[in-house]
Amino acid sequence: MIHSASLINDPFGDPGAYVDFKYRREAFLFDLGDIHILPPRKLLKIGYIFVSHTHMDHFIGFDHLLRISLGRDRCIRLYGPPNFLRNVEDKLHSYTWNLVANYANDFELLVTEIHPEHKISRQYRCRNAFRPEGEKCVDYDGTLVQGDFFSVRSVFLDHGTPCLAFCFEEKTRINIKKNVLREMGLPTGAWLLELKAHVMKGEPDDLPVRAWWRNTDGRTEEKTVSLGVLRQKAMKITPGQKISYVTDALYNEENVRRIIELSAGSELMFIEAPFLHEDADAAARKYHLTARQAGMLARQAGAKRIMLFHFSPKYKTEGDLLHREAMNAFQGAL
Ligand SMILES: [Zn+2]
Ligand SMILES: [Zn+2]
Question: What is the pTM of this model?
């Protein structure tokens, strides 16, 4: 369950979002710009980093994170666009690693470079002087991470260079109230898996569900109960939350389509709003969105909340104008 999701810096600072979870000791980072503001306690929780592209303001935090993590027994997974392995390796090569073989702990980076149809991973271990190891190449179908509790997907956007937008989705959680089932005279068993599958598929309340079990002398007994009754009385269903992170994109037809599709129904949408719409030409020249476009995209995606960032320094004293313009578009009051 998501505990908090927030921007790392103020909207004029380097882009990036930190997502923290309840009951998990791992946090996610979207983009890796200036992260000095994060205390080591938070930095050391980061398990996954999704880098949109390697323009400096999105990737300069790599060194700081490496510095804090060295000598720790942990693994960080990084994902980035084409050429990402080379970007990471060039950073690692810029230091001398002659004394790391005897470190007590082995810090490890697992780096994945994403291409439109495949992804390539390499592993870099501190004790092996961060030499590339274990290269793997697998098909890429839009899903970057498929965990038990969540998934992360990405799409390519045109920013003059390939730039990734991400969406994080928690899976719906279903807890069965076993004491209630007992009171209903329904022992637990394999039928609960089918029950959960019905709920995940969104089957109607009047669907008959067959509960079955073996009694003490080995005979199968069964009862039929409607899905609605079980759903209402014996289950606690927590819908998963969806968070999307969209930055550094030209406003064109293909980007618009991909952004809306990726972030549809987001609980929270992080979206860049660097320029006022009156400067739409400058925004387009730099392959960025305007605040109005950001608000419209979030509205079209049906996002519930938006968080704006990557404000251009040219509006340093006018951040509220960017905010207002985006919020007006988001709320449909252009
Ligand atoms: Zn950029
Ligand atoms: Zn940028």
Answer: 0.87
